[in-house]
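Figure 3 (text version): structure tokens given as input.
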């Protein structure tokens, strides 16, 4: 492919240049790799129970008496559809305007192109359809418009940009031109006796309508106890602690045992959540293969299942997981001694969990889920996703490029982070589309 460069612009099919960031090119860097390192560092989770909701019916979609649609899918009856990847818009540079220390998040930009959040410099950069930098704001600090521990970026339909951090739980609002608006802090709350609760971490999602969802949880090492409780709440405006908040769903998980001699569960089911059109909150327990949608009041409105079999954990899988932990520690994501200690205490499951992560595309509502596979722990292996139509029916599979980790799906594109053979990072956007009978519509 021939790439044409001008002085400050680049063909969307061409990279701007190598990035200065380094990355462990594992196929599930956000779901699998993070989970493994969390377990090795004794700050992960070991098992889960989730919100009530079932998939008892057999014909998709089946409305139940309470209005919930239950969609049960069978692999052998699926259509022969796959999804394909198109030409990328890729941004990255060794130095200059497109240099990233570490790409924390990539999101769609309403004016075209994408937002890139640098987790090292804490800068938010807006790139247009040609890959040219058009706006930049943020930067590390505690002052107005500065960011601390920023992990995710979103743009609402009203043209405001939200940048969120996990600890302390903070949400910063900017105009699309980078002008600072305000910051919201999730205030420490009290228990029923008036005592302060342990410090909490947060994961965030901001929808196109501007509704904010936050999952708050406390780690056992900070006084969270033997069980870790997650509460996903939604609010519209104002301080999260003061504005009207609706609890959408809650679940608890077992904490990693604090006893240094206790057995340590490896690759336990990890619940994941995201948001989709209509301000629905989508949630999966990790196992069994279920994906559930809840409305803003916490009512279950849809439950999707797939009869994909779980992968048995044999010797080859155990060795692949162990090598993945060691490689991540070598890359600087964890301490080698802690990893070896975790492996010496390993309690291996009989089979891998079913689902590693889930995403929902805006505005069409297509659901993408990442099933665990034998290849999940092999470096450079392309990630395969299951795809479900907006009504929950199974559509087929999408295989992403090797070394690519998705962050968002929106308007026919997938946004994410990609590393090259030198483990340098790029912010990338790929078009995705269904291919029916070998023909792309």
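Below: residues designed for each position.
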């Amino acid at each position: 492919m021939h790439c044409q460069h001008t002085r400050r612009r680049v063909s969307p099919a061409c990279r701007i240049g190598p990035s200065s960031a380094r990355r462990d090119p594992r196929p599930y860097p956000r779901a699998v790799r993070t989970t493994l390192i969390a377990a090795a560092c004794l700050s992960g989770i070991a098992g889960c129970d989730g919100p009530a909701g079932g998939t008892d019916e057999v014909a998709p979609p089946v409305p139940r008496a309470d209005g919930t649609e239950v969609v049960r899918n069978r692999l052998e009856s699926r259509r022969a559809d796959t999804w394909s990847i198109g030409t990328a818009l890729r941004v990255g540079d060794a130095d200059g305007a497109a240099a990233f220390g570490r790409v924390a998040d990539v999101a769609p930009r309403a004016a075209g192109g994408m937002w890139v959040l640098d987790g090292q410099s804490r800068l938010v950069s807006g790139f247009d359809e040609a890959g040219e930098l058009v706006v930049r704001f943020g930067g590390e600090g505690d002052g107005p418009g500065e960011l601390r521990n920023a992990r995710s970026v979103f743009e609402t339909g009203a043209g405001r940009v939200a940048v969120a951090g996990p600890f302390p739980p903070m949400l910063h609002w900017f105009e699309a031109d980078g002008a600072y608006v305000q910051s919201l802090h999730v205030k420490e709350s009290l228990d029923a006796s008036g005592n302060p609760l342990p410090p909490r971490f947060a994961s965030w999602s901001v929808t196109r309508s501007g509704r904010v969802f936050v999952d708050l949880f406390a780690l056992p090492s900070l006084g969270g106890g033997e069980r870790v409780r997650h509460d996903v709440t939604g609010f519209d405006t104002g301080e999260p602690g003061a504005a009207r908040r609706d609890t959408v769903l809650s679940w608890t998980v077992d904490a990693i045992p604090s006893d240094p001699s206790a057995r340590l569960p490896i690759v336990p089911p990890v619940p994941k959540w995201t948001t989709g059109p209509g301000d629905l909150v989508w949630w999966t327990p990790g196992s069994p293969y279920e994906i559930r949608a809840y409305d803003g009041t916490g009512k279950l409105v849809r439950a999707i299942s797939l009869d994909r079999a779980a992968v048995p954990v044999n010797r080859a899988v155990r060795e692949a997981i162990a090598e993945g932990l060691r490689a991540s520690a070598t890359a600087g994501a964890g301490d080698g001694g802690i990893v070896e200690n975790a492996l010496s205490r390993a309690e291996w499951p009989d089979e891998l969990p079913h689902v590693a992560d889930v995403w929902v595309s805006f505005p069409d509502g297509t659901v993408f889920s990442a099933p665990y596979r034998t290849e999940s722990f092999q470096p450079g292996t392309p990630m395969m996703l299951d795809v479900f139509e907006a009504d929950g029916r199974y559509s087929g599979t999408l295989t992403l490029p090797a070394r690519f980790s998705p962050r968002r799906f929106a308007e026919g594109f997938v946004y994410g982070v990609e590393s090259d053979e030198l483990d340098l990072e790029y912010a990338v956007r790929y078009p995705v589309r269904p291919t029916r009978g070998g023909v792309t519509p």
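The first helix runs from residue 29 to 40.
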